[in-house]
Amino acid sequence: MPFDRATVRDLDPAGKAVLVRVDFNVPLDDGRVADDTRIRAALPTIELLVSKGARIILASHLGRPDGRPDPDLSLAPVAVRLAELLGRPVRFCPEVVGTRATEMASELGPGDVLLLENLRFEPGETSDDEGLASDLAALADLYVNDAFGAAHRSHASTAGVARHLPAVAGLLLEQEVSRLSAVAESPERPLVVVLGGAKVSDKIGLVSRFLEIADELLIGGAMCFPFFRSQGIETGNSLCEEEGVSLASDLLDLADRSDCELRLPVDLVAGRDFSAETEVSTLDSNSVPDGWMGLDIGPATARGYAEAISGAATILWNGPMGAFELDPFSDGTRTVAEAVAGADGLTVVGGGDSVAALNRFGLEDSVDWVSTGGGASLELLEGRSLPGVEALGRA
Ligand code: ADP
Ligand code: MG
Questions:
Q1: In this structure, are 163 and 184 located in the same domain?
Q2: Which of 69, 167, 177, 269 is most exposed, with minimal Cβ within 10 Å?
Q3: pLDDT single digits (tens) 195-253
């Protein structure tokens, strides 16, 4: 389905104040931005608005300050980095709404950029408080949502302001929704989906969804252990959420009736504990003995998964195949990452740690789309609608 919302390209914002919700939820280290991927991802929308002569007011959350100011979670370092990337000054407002914010917003000229303080310093942000929503809206004439990473939340800055102002999508939000829905709704076949990582209960919904859509579903990471335990296979000390086991059993039944082939690891790499210095053993089956934990898919599994990926027309990868941060357990993730990067098919990668793995192996430029949104991308791929998108005007 083509993207059906109005976008920033449809706006004529010259001289108008435009409130842009961005996702600048970046890691900070010692008062500096440690990874600016999300800031870079917002540049096309900001640059377009600058070129059209808009007066730009940016708003974002950072971390979870729980409705109170927290100096460690100030967006001030982000303003510094953004100014470097844009090559123009970025003013920083030490509050979200209030007299100072109103004043600074009114002082903006065409092409000027202002960044407001962390939205979540305001208790009304996450509760979608009507007062905060209307105060934010009062700063501007138009609203652009480019914060795909927050689009699955009904917050004052995502859903609330859109009730007060003409609301359109930013370029990143548009790209994310179009790219991810294309994979989930009209993929070129075969579609191969690779799921791993640790947050099994978050991702189990994706398994049932892709059992209906994909041609092959390859499971790795800690995701495999609920499946094994539900089949009575020993999982030793492996990370295995108990609540996932009965769900996994239902999913195995679903897989039996589905045209999608569900594949689980046939071999594993195990360690005594979660550490790079631990004793390591390659197990030639999927059964993990007592005293060991499965920390990576084994070489035969990795080869088989890489082959399936190479033959696919569309590949979606979410979640590392093992504890890739630890050298002895990084091979499975590396093999899969290299296969994804080298594939001829359309490749889409989502999930913070999967993207970190791609970066670690220097492969981030070899995939077609790297999603910036964790939870939002999972919800979209599951087929749920995103409140931040629903709130926007139709094209
Ligand atoms: P993403 O951020 O890509 O969605 P997750 O957050 O779900 O991925 O999972 C990433 C984490 O999963 C990594 O920190 C990795 O160490 C961990 N992990 C992967 N496989 C295992 C495993 N077998 N046992 C323990 N942790 C694992
Ligand atoms: Mg993660």
A1: no
A2: 69
A3: 999 877 888 889 999 999 999 999 999 999 999 999 999 999 999 988 889 999 999 99
Of the candidates 53, 375, 383, 393, the residue annotated as catalytic is: 375
Residues β-bridged to residue 190: none
Convert the pLDDT of each residue in 63-93 to its tens digit: 999 999 999 999 999 999 999 999 999 999 9
Residue 199 is among the residues annotated as catalytic for this protein: yes
Q: Let me know if 375 is a catalytic residue.
A: yes
Asked if residue 392 belongs to a domain, the reply is: no
Ligand 1 environment, Cβ below 6 A = 196-199, 221-222, 239, 294-295, 318-320, 322-323, 325, 351-354, 374
- Point out the catalytic residue in the list 352, 360, 383, 393: 352
pTM given for the model? 0.90
- C-alpha 162/C-alpha 392 separation (Å) is 7
Q: Are residues 151 and 190 in the same domain?
A: no
Query: Within this chain, do residues 304 and 366 fall inside the same structural domain, yes or no?
Result: yes
Residue 28 CB contacts under 8 Å (≥ 6 apart), including other chains:
34, 62, 72, 73, 77
Segments forming the whole domain that contains residue 192: 179-381
Distance 237 CA to ligand 2 centre (A): 21
